[in-house]
Specification:
There is one protein chain. With 195 residues, the protein is mainly beta. It has 2 domains: 48 residues, no CATH class; 134 residues, no CATH class. Helices cover 12% and strands 31% of the residues. It starts with a strand and ends with a strand.
């Protein structure tokens, strides 16, 4: 396997050699400890911590077209027990053990509550109706009530990229909405303008 190294000046302390593959990191002088973390890489300098993480988002249409995830296909296309947020504060539960949650982006703060209805949810679908809805971030570290969460789908219901058929900018828009990526949760996006 090829290894790639990135040299960073360390505030005049020395040079940090960081293996981009996430396996090792060292400093040539005052480095006290080496830490390896799968998925995100963190290295420490005296009194300074730097973390490198990457968020990834995938187009739902591409995944469904490839037929690579039958479970996701069923969650998205079939009628399932579901939690619905009708407004910021009004929640309706249909079915005994909901595996899906549907909401508008303005209800994101409600996801941070520890609600027993969230424990079985596998898919959160967040609908974004307009450009004004663009500024609501989702912090995955705060989704502590979701014990079985596998997918988060951002569904854009307006021409977010300029036309009703263009979805090229949605990946970047979606990535910018997610904080603290979790490798166990797949972030998805979809352009779905109501007719």
């Amino acid at each position: 396997m090829n290894k790639f190294y990135l040299l960073l000046p360390a505030l005049m302390i020395g040079t940090v050699i960081f293996n981009v593959s996430g396996r090792t990191c060292t400093n040539n002088s005052d480095f006290s400890e080496t830490l390896s973390v799968s998925g995100s890489s963190t290295f420490f300098l005296p009194n300074i911590a730097v973390s490198i993480t990457s968020t990834e988002a995938y187009n739902l249409k591409d995944i469904l077209k490839a037929k690579s995830d039958n479970h996701l296909d069923k969650l998205v296309t079939e009628v399932n027990p579901c939690v619905y947020f009708l407004t910021d504060q009004t929640m309706v539960v249909q079915g005994d053990t909901p595996i899906k949650l549907e909401m508008y982006v303005n209800s994101i703060p409600q996801l941070y509550d520890n609600n027993k209805e969230y424990e079985t949810v596998e898919l959160i679908k967040i609908q974004i109706r307009s450009k004004e809805d663009q500024h609501a971030p989702l912090d995955l570290n705060k989704l502590t009530g979701f014990k079985n969460l596998k997918y988060i789908l951002f569904e854009y219901e307006y021409s977010a990229c300029g036309s009703i058929e263009d979805d090229m900018c949605l990946k970047e828009k979606t990535i910018s909405k997610v904080m603290n990526q979790n490798q166990n949760i797949q972030v998805l996006y979809l352009l779905s303008i109501p007719q």
